[in-house]
Amino acid sequence: MLSFDGTLRIKVYERNLIDCLGFNVELFGQTNGWRIYVGESRNGAVIHDTESGHLVIAGATTFGKSNF
Ligand SMILES: Nc1ncnc2c1ncn2[C@@H]1O[C@H](COP(=O)(O)OP(=O)(O)OP(=O)(O)O)[C@@H](O)[C@H]1O
Ligand SMILES: [Mg+2]
User: Fold this and answer.
1) Which protein residue has the closest C-alpha to ligand 1 atom 13?
2) What distances in angstroms separate CA 49 from CA 25, 26, 54, 55, one per listed residue?
């Protein structure tokens, strides 16, 4: 990975990216209180508030539900 903050930094990783991140309740708990920007609707920004819990994804065919 390359980055530049006045100095060119090159990171070399010893491990590959993992294929699958298993569900981890402890890790998931750290997202309590996050407000996640989802996108734009005709009524303005759509924000998912993890504190309130649930999010339903619905939309027209091929408009990006699975990718999201
Ligand atoms: N934000 C985006 N910007 C541009 N292209 C996108 C975006 N989101 C999805 N796409 C592209 O649109 C196509 C359809 O996306 P996706 O399969 O996520 O839609 P879907 O709503 O799940 O469709 P379906 O209703 O058929 O299940 C894909 O080719 C995808 O790469
Ligand atoms: Mg889909």
Assistant:
1) 62
2) 18, 18, 8, 9
